């Protein structure tokens, strides 16, 4: 009993510290696992659908680790063209390729002694996966256009909205890289599996956006909440957040009714 109470208190503190909203069993179990792994140096892979808050959880792991006062650097693989990925990851020296008019510091250097969070790692090409694997194994990399290796000391956290095991089976993701990055896997539950958290999230976002837009906090009508609880939220918490910001902005009578939610039919 005492152990269970301590676990509950620890998870509650984690939520309060990092602004994580919810009280479902699925969320609490996931956070308890996160809290166990955070103080270690183990590489962590966070798996979950888009909009579930994977980046927020990566921040939490870093903040609970011994590297908390060191850099936390984010690399979004969907935001960088494949032709520039190596330069962004490892950096380059001036003149190493056309357009390289100055030295560039890569993400591994920026994150040195801290945490590197690689989001949507499944988007990396197989050649880039091979180069990343070598850096993880040797703890050193070579800048584009350079010949000298550079040592790196980082905690690696990755995330994917795709099933990496299935990607391995189709040959789209290297098996050896998977086992390097996924020393510990954290699966983030989609919002449809934690519908009991919808009222808490709704209240949080309504208050947040009322303050942001200088409006009185509107009342969420029961029928609107009922619709939200029945909806399966394919875009997860991000979709819920966007939906309620729109509702707060458009609300004129200090209440949010179903017509302001723009959810359409239940999926």
Summarize this, please?
The chain has 267 residues and is an alpha/beta fold. It has helices at 2-18, 25-37, 54-63, 82-90, 107-110, 126-138, 164-169, 175-181, 198-212, 222-230, 236-250, and strands at residues 44-47, 72-76, 91-92, 104-105, 115-119, 140-142, 149-151, 155-160, 184-187, 219-220, 255-256.
Topology:
Blueprint: H1 2-18, H2 25-37, E1 44-47, H3 54-63, E2 72-76, H4 82-90, E3 91-92, E4 104-105, H5 107-110, E5 115-119, H6 126-138, E6 140-142, E7 149-151, E8 155-160, H7 164-169, H8 175-181, E9 184-187, H9 198-212, E10 219-220, H10 222-230, H11 236-250, E11 255-256
Helix pairs in contact: 1-2, 6-8, 9-11
Radius of gyration from the alpha-carbon trace, in angstroms = 21 Å
| Assembly context of the chains | single chain
Percent of sequence in beta strands: 5-15%
Q: What is the N-to-C succession of helices and strands?
A: HHEHEHEEHEHEEEHHEHEHHE
Low-confidence stretches: 1-6
**What is the average of the pLDDT values?**
90
Based on helices, strands and strand pairing, what is the structural class? alpha/beta
* N-to-C CA distance: 40 Å
Largest sheet: 5 strands, parallel
Number of helices: 11
Per DSSP E runs of 2 or more residues, the count of β-strands stands at 11
Can you list the strand order of the major beta sheet? Answer: 2-5-8-1-9
Outline type: elongated
């Amino acid at each position: 009993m005492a152990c269970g109470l301590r676990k509950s208190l620890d998870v509650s503190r984690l939520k309060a510290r990092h602004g994580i909203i919810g009280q479902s069993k699925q969320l609490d179990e996931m956070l308890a696992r996160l809290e166990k792994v955070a103080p270690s140096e183990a590489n962590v892979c966070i798996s979950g659908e888009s909009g579930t808050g994977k980046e927020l959880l990566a921040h939490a792991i870093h903040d609970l680790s011994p590297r908390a006062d060191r850099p936390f650097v984010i690399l979004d693989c969907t935001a960088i063209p494949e032709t520039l990925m190596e330069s962004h990851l490892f950096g380059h020296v001036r003149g190493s390729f056309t357009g390289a008019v100055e030295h560039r510091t890569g993400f591994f250097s920026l994150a040195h002694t801290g945490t590197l969070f690689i989001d949507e790692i499944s988007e990396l090409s197989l050649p880039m996966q091979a180069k990343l694997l070598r850096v993880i194994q040797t703890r050193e990399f070579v800048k584009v256009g350079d010949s000298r290796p550079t040592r790196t000391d980082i905690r690696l956290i990755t995330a994917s909205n795709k099933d990496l095991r299935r990607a391995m089976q189709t040959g789209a993701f290297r098996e050896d890289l998977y086992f390097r990055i996924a020393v510990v896997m954290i699966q983030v539950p989609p919002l449809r599996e934690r519908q009991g958290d919808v009222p808490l999230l709704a209240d949080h976002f309504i208050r947040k956006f009322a303050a942001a837009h200088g409006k009185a906090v509107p009342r969420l009508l029961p029928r609107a909440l009922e619709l939200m609880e029945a909806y399966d939220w394919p875009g997860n918490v991000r979709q819920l957040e966007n939906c309620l910001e729109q509702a707060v902005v458009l609300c004129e009578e200090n209440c949010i009714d179903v017509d302001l939610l723009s959810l359409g039919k239940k999926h």
